[in-house]
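Before we proceed, please read the two lines closing this message. Let me know whether the structure tokens fit the sequence:

…
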Amino acid sequence: MQRHLQPSNAMLLCGTEPLKPDILSRIVYGLRVSLLVGFASMAIGTLLGLVSGYWEGGWTKGAQRAVDTTIRSALTLFAVTPTIVLGLLLEKYITRGIVMGSLKW
């Protein structure tokens, strides 16, 4: 049986492609680092949460402020990104309009 560009079936859940036999195996192979980082960060966060919940004090407030700052910076990045993209698009089209208008196109 040829395993070249087959559609998905019960044996090959994502099908095949020309260079490698199975797309699902390539997806799982590529997920290794992402899963490792995700599980490591989850373990570190859980450990810090347990420690700060058990021992209250100045360290807990410092950890809370660090987490708040991290969340705030991520939300700021998500809020600013559409503005940057819109600004770049507007600059492109306004500049194009000025140039085309001055050349009477």
The radius of gyration is 25 Å.
